[in-house]
Amino acid sequence: DVPKATEPRGDIDGPRRGSLCDRHCAAINNVQGDLGDLGCHLHRPRVQPAMSPSSCCQQHSDEVCESCVVKTTLTAENVVEANKLSNNYKFGFKKWKSHVTARPWEDRSEIVKELYSDLNVIRGSGGSTVTCGNILYLLLFGWWLSFLYILVAAMMFITVVGAPYGRLCWDLAGYFLWPFGKVIQKVEVPKSQRALGTCEPSVETSSAGETSALLGGAMPRRWRPWCWADAGHWQCASAVVWLCLGYPVLVLAHGLVCMTAWLLVVLIPVAKLSARTATRVLLLPPEQVLVRRLRMTEVPLEGEVILCCYHAVNPYYYKYAVDGINVFAVNLLPLVLVTLVLGYMDSHNRLTSSPVKFTLALLSIMPLSYYIGMAIASISAQSNFALGAVVNATFGSITELTFYITALIKGSREGNRCYAEIVKSALTGTLVGCVLFVPGLCMVIGGIRHQEQRFNSRSAGVSSALLFLSVGGELGTRVSPGFRGLLPAWVPTPYLSIPAGVFAPTLFSKVYGKLVCGECHNVTQNPLGHYLCHNCHFDLMENNGTLYYSHVQPLVYTVSLLLPAAYLIGLFFTLKTHSHIYDIHISDCHMPGHHHSAVVHWSRWRALVILLLSTLCMSACADLATEHISPILTNSTISQYFIGVTVLAMVPELPEIVNGIQFALQNNLSLSIEIGNCIAVQVCMLQIPILVLFTIFYPTNFTLVFSDLHVYASMFSVVLMNYIFMDGKCDYFQGTVLVMVYFILLAVYFFAPSPSGC
User: Fold this and answer.
1) Which of 405, 528, 495 is nearest to 725 (CA)?
2) Cα(336)–Cα(573) distance, rounded to whole angstroms?
3) Res 610 pLDDT > 60
């Protein structure tokens, strides 16, 4: 749903390709300028570089023109949309695909315009109406809705005074059995026919109806309602009978059809059909409603067309939005209300069980995450840089932090260490999933449409460097030969570093901690022989916890202060001193027909209110999820590691995954990769330090000491990600490698034994 890009003029198509330096600048131009559509109009005019090729070659004798940076120009409909596009490329800002402003109607495609139509447009040739979607309508709604109209028609005829509405229901019974290719029209009745007791049309109308070519034949006779002369429609006796007996039944039926069809999304045309019938057609006087079948050669009807439908199913309704909100997020919003009512009103599980409430609470997090993301993007696009950075840093990780903190509080109250292990598993699962699964899936889906996709390796390198610092900082390259033999030959030696950052306390505890095992068995029956031990862990509380309180805990606090500082330095580097590495320029020019004035979906105050309400509901849903997760952890045969790494880690990130896929389909893999990298960086540099600092004010069982499985999984993921992103281009095969490694790690977590304390 994007207007096609205009061809760039020849005078700005780039520098001449004469010398080797010129050709190198052109290569940089092609690599860094290969960005896809961002949801608004995008073209790639080549602006003159800040340094000419000749001066570049004079400074670099080897004719490597690294300073020839060519920016990609993005043209947005308005200033607010331009700010949103610019924020997508800023480190630390939430990447958002959907528009935060209303798009000009003339720039919409015909497919999208049809989605928002009122089903009152007559086509010249609609084609065959016998389709699979129309047959599905007949099986789901048409037969019983038509039968209901027949019953209501019979009831109206029995009342005698409701006979006009009985005839109307009889006509509508045939219409709703197969409404495709038919039209409901509002006709005007002359005053001469509205006299007391008249039940036949006037001579003028009868003759006009018989010779009307627009209606395709004679106008059928209509029974006039039994009412007083010159009285309003709703003072008629037939109207009173209709409102008391017939209309309520049909409104309930159409309400059920409308709700069901709306939830199925692709059947939204049926929902519009039912809603318009209940609110418009059934409230008109029966003599003003005319049901006709359109002929293929028939010219458009005169008068007002109320309903005209050709197809019951439209697969493009996944693009449909209500006030800027995607239809799926709208449909999932009632789930939040159901979850809160069941969770807090049925505290004794009389209506539903704990697993059902846990599932509902987890599913409710998805639409709330969408609303939080939409609110953050709207506020950032309408505010200055400082306020946008504060909002993104404050609420960017609110979804995950809300769940983690509520889980830690519940574990502390119950004295159950299992909740802390679940939080660690969820943190690791988010890190591994955003490093492997999110970019890998985007590469696979985007690679199906585009043979090879390129991205800005310099901008991706900033996030990768911060992530490598927080997960696998280069403390050295001395590894054991056995461990080096486990890795493929293509893994370079500099990447074989000892885990640092958030895993530094874990490394420290394994070096200085005392290994304690639950039970050991002598395998060789020799006191000096080999022993097989189970449930082994490093004890940090030896000698009244001297090692932990004197050495490990200060190290944890130090790391928790240094990592956010590194995150702030990364923000300053990418947004202030080296912002040119993103090569993005928002043009001031607009396409003809575009509106310069922004019509925002959500104002700043509205977005702020929605953000606060969504955060409040998120806290309630997270509280319900942690409240009802205990039976699942206790009775489930699946490892608690697997539950934390998959369900608790990736479900809140589904809106981000959808955004990444949409960017990849538009050949904008840079933003797809940045989505995963930014989430992973926030996990290590913001979420974990916040959890550690939270334990200072509210003591919990959470310690920054991870299991070996979490350390190795995170390290392998970051190493593989850095290797894949080195050349700045990828295809679906490399994406498949990342996805396969992710599923292998999931298999390891699935078969791993439960952590100690669970």
Assistant:
1) 495
2) 40
3) yes
Look at residue 61 and tell me if it is in a domain: no
Contact in structure between 69 and 580 (CB atoms under 8 Å) = yes
415 to 173, 496, 633, 691, 700: CA distances (angstroms): 64, 39, 15, 18, 9
Say if residue 19's pLDDT is above 50. no
For the stretch 70-109, what's the b/e string if a residue is b when 16 or more beta carbons lie within 10 angstroms of its beta carbon?
bbbbbbbbbbbbbbbbbbbbbbbbbbbbbbbbbbbeebbe
Query: Chain centroid to CA 215: how far?
Result: 47
Percent of the chain with pLDDT over 90: 17
Q: What does the DSSP 8-state code read for residue 138?
A: I
Report the CATH number at residue 575: 1.20.1420.30
Query: Is residue 203 a contact partner of residue 212, using CB atoms and an 8 Å limit?
Result: no
SS3 assignment for 479-503: CCHHHHHHCCCCCCHHHCCCCCHHH
| 566-601 pLDDT, tens digit each | 888 877 777 777 666 555 555 544 444 444 566 888
Q: Which range has the worst mean pLDDT, 56-65, 138-147, 509-518, 574-583?
A: 56-65
pLDDT band at 158 (very low <50, low <70, confident <90, very high): very high
Pair of tokens at residue 677: 């990298």
Please answer whether residues 62 and 575 qualify as being in contact, where contact means their C-beta atoms are separated by less than 8 angstroms: no
In a domain, 1, yes or no: no
* Close Cβ partners of 637 (under 8 Å, ≥ 6 residues apart): none
Same domain, yes or no: 292 and 408: no
Q: Where are the alpha helices (DSSP H) in 233-384?
A: 237-241, 247-263, 268-279, 327-345, 354-381
**310, 333: one domain:** no
- Residue 521 confidence (pLDDT) above 60: yes
Do 642 and 667 lie in a common domain? Answer: yes
What is the pLDDT, as a whole number, of residue 593?
A: 45
- Specify whether 262 is located in the same domain as 396: no
Range from 448-457, 644-653, 744-753 carrying the lowest mean pLDDT: 448-457
For the segment 370-418, what is each residue's pLDDT rounded down to a tens digit?
898 888 888 888 887 778 777 887 787 888 888 899 889 988 888 888 8
Q: How confident is the model at residue 119 (pLDDT cuts 50, 70, 90)?
A: confident
Same domain? For 394 and 267 the reply is no
3-class state of residue 295 by DSSP: coil
- Write the burial class of residue 513 (CB in 10 Å: 0-12 exposed, 13-18 middle, 19+ buried): buried
Whole-prediction pTM value?
Answer: 0.73
Q: Is there a domain that residue 683 lies in?
A: yes
Among residues 389, 375, 368, the alpha carbon closest in space to that of 608 is found at 375
Residue 26 has pLDDT above 50, yes or no: no
What are the contacts of 4-10 at 24+ separation with CB within 8 A? Answer: 5/41, 5/42, 5/43, 5/44, 6/43, 6/591, 8/43, 8/44, 8/45, 8/46, 9/45
Instruction: Report d(CA 201, CA 634) in Å as an integer.
Output: 77
Average pLDDT across the chain, whole number = 74
Picking from 713, 712, 719, the residue whose alpha carbon sits closest to that of residue 742 is: 713
User: Would you tell me how many other CB atoms lie within 10 Å of the CB of residue 212?
Assistant: 14
Structural domain count, the chain: 2
How many Cα atoms within 13 Å fall on the side-chain side of residue 357? 27
Higher pLDDT, 501 or 202: 501
Spatial distance between the Cα atoms of 620 and 156, rounded to a whole number of angstroms: 50
Q: What is the DSSP letter of 140?
A: I
Q: Which of 294, 319, 344 is the last residue of a domain?
A: 319
CA 669/CA 446 separation, integer angstroms: 8
Strand stretches in 622-752, DSSP E: 729-730
- Domain span at residue 350 reads 320-477+496-521+531-589+602-751
Report strand pairing: 289-293 vs 182-186.
antiparallel
| Cα(651)–Cα(370) distance, integer angstroms | 12
How far is the C-alpha of 752 from the C-alpha of 531, rounded, in Å? 22
**Taking the C-alpha atoms of 550, 555, 560 and 561 in order, what is their torsion angle to the nearest 10 degrees?**
90
